[in-house]
Structures are given as structure tokens and as C-alpha cells.
Specification:
179 residues, 3-stranded antiparallel β-sheet
């Protein structure tokens, strides 16, 4: 040991070097665990999005809203897909971990609930099975103010479209993928 400088002969120097090495290992271990947990969160959110997109694609949602706002009608099958999508996002297991996406999902859920309430209250089935219209019997009644209901429906559809676009944008931004 006489060949080593005096600095390395000191026991305290070796203790300090060991402690620094241990601290460095602990730091890197925590960093690795953080990165792994972050990857798991991203994967969790990605799976929620993929499964929700299987339930209802953006095209189907836009078709539903166009049909609803322009024709003031909807097909029961499309409406059910939108409701299934809404229920899927409301389930406890399907909560996004990223707060921007979670906030946009809350906004979307609230706008869909408002739209569903309006539909349930003001739409009824017409003679064609599985097709529902906005007050079909009262549309041409001069005593009935149909235009107010049309305007309210258009506002709700625009709000749902805006919230859905915000949801898709937050997904696209977060995952940095083309949707």
C-alpha cells in the first residue's frame, strides 16, 4: 500500500467514496423506476384510447352528430355506440392518468350527458323502426315552437363536437401519434 498516495490510504476517504457511489446507485435506480412507471402510465392511457376508438371511431361520431343536427334524427345503433363509448370512459378502470386528457374526457362526458338528456326527452321513434326524430308529430304544428328545439339541439351538437375534438387533440398531443 505504500505505492498509493496518502489520500487513498485514509479509511475516511474510502468511506466517503463508498457513500457517494451508493447515493449515485440509488439515484439511478429511482430514475429507472420513474421511467418504467411513466412508460406503464403511457401504455395504460394508450390502451384506453385504442379500446375506446374500437367502440366508436371519430368518423362514426361525426356522422352521428351530422345526422342529429341536420336531419334532427338518429339511428338507434349509432346512438348505442356513442352511449357505449361514453360508458367506457366513465368506468373506473378506464381513467386516463395524464391530467390534460382526463380533463378533456370530463368535458366530453358532460357534453354527451347533456346531449343524451335532450335526446331522451325530446326524441321519439318514427314509423321506421330504429329511427328516432325530434318531435316528429309536432314539427309542422304552427302552435309548437319547433325552432327553439332545433337551435338547442344544434348548440348541444356543436358543444359535443368541440369537446370531442379537444379530447382527440389532447390524445394526439400526448401520444404524439397521428389519429
Amino acid at each position: 500500500m505504500s505505492n498509493l498516495p496518502d489520500f487513498f490510504d485514509n479509511v475516511n476517504t474510502w468511506r466517503i467514496l463508498c457513500i457517494l457511489s451508493l447515493l449515485q446507485m440509488i439515484f439511478y435506480k429511482k430514475k429507472i423506476l420513474f421511467l418504467q412507471s411513466n412508460e406503464e402510465k403511457i401504455e395504460h392511457d394508450r390502451n384506453i384510447f385504442i379500446n375506446s376508438d374500437v367502440l366508436m371511431t371519430a368518423e362514426l361520431f361525426k356522422e352521428f352528430l351530422i345526422e342529429l343536427s341536420i336531419n334532427e334524427s338518429y339511428q338507434k345503433a349509432k346512438f348505442q355506440k356513442v352511449k357505449d363509448f361514453h360508458l367506457y370512459l366513465k368506468q373506473k378502470n378506464n381513467k386516463y392518468t395524464y391530467t390534460n386528457i382526463a380533463d378533456s374526457v370530463k368535458n366530453l362526458a358532460a357534453s354527451l350527458e347533456n346531449l343524451f338528456d335532450f335526446i331522451n326527452e325530446h326524441f321519439s321513434e318514427v314509423k321506421i323502426p330504429e329511427i328516432y326524430r325530434l318531435y316528429p308529430d309536432l314539427k309542422h304544428d304552427p302552435e309548437f315552437n319547433y325552432l327553439d328545439f332545433q337551435e338547442q339541439l344544434n348548440i348541444l351538437c356543436r358543444e359535443a363536437e368541440t369537446c370531442y375534438s379537444g379530447y382527440r387533440l389532447s390524445i394526439k398531443t400526448y401520444f404524439n401519434i397521428c389519429i
